[in-house]
Amino acid sequence: MKNILEMKQVVKSFGQGHTEVQALKGIDITVKEGEFVSIIGPSGSGKSTFLTISGGLQTPTSGTISINGKNFTNLNEKERSKLRFKEVGFILQASNLIPYLNVEDQFKLIDKINRKKVSGQEVNGLLQALDIEDLRKKYPGELSGGERQRVAIARALYNDPSLILADEPTASLDTDRAYQVVELLKKEAHDKNKATIMVTHDIRMIEHSDSVYRIEDGTLTKIEG
Ligand code: ADP
Ligand code: MG
Fold first, then answer.
1. 198 by DSSP, 3-state: which?
2. Which of 7, 30, 40, 115 has the fewest Cβ atoms within 10 Å of its own Cβ atom?
3. Which residue's alpha carbon is at the smallest distance from atom 14 of ligand 1?
4. Nearest listed ligand to the Cα of residue 218
5. Measured from the CB, is residue 44 less than 6 Å from ligand 1?
6. Is the pTM of this model over 0.85?
7. How far apart are the first and last CA of the chain?
8. Packing angle of the helix pair 145-158, 103-114 (nearest 10 deg)
9. Is any atom of ligand 1 closer than 6 Å to the C-beta of 45?
10. Does ligand 1 come within 6 angstroms of the Cβ of 47?
11. Separation of alpha carbons 98 and 81, rounded Å
12. Domains of the chain
């Protein structure tokens, strides 16, 4: 299995001098194709910083990150956003759907940016897998928390990235829905061979992951897998 994400000695500091906060203190991790990884840690432990840095939304203070064999670290902003768009699907805490677009148009926007159309058949398959076919004409404000999160997952998977990053994707859901979302993420990782990382503070959500890490005070430790 190919390595999709490789991070070596990644450090991220915010601020300077006596106000400096080291949010990540030398992170090493490798995630392979089709691997579903959970990272558990309390609030403030560095989960969101880890995830945004691993997907190139922020740059590290030091260390290296490569995605699908390409070193992210030395790219300029423009090259980085291009690689990110192609290789990374984000599912962020606030589901990041565009409020004035209906579900179908959320996907069409990706086609537009991509200048390439995903086939109708593939779109249908994805919407079916996530059980959101009937929601095509609805706006984010008309969806329940669970529906919104499933649409956000579909959008993250839409242009077939190699790496899926999910930041507490179950935070706003009841327990049943939360389990379903995690199951879905795992299934997509295995069926479509996506390297997937989910960060969460909810210990119940990490069962059945291929590997589990704990993050505490910016330090990552493997605890299972
Ligand atoms: P989590 O997602 O686990 O709650 P975060 O990654 O958001 O944790 O934050 C980790 C630490 O880094 C916290 O102490 C937080 O205050 C700090 N931090 C995160 N982002 C910034 C920033 N942009 N500026 C300053 N400090 C930050
Ligand atoms: Mg967070």
1. strand
2. 115
3. 44
4. 1
5. yes
6. yes
7. 15
8. 20
9. yes
10. yes
11. 19
12. 3-223 (3.40.50.300)
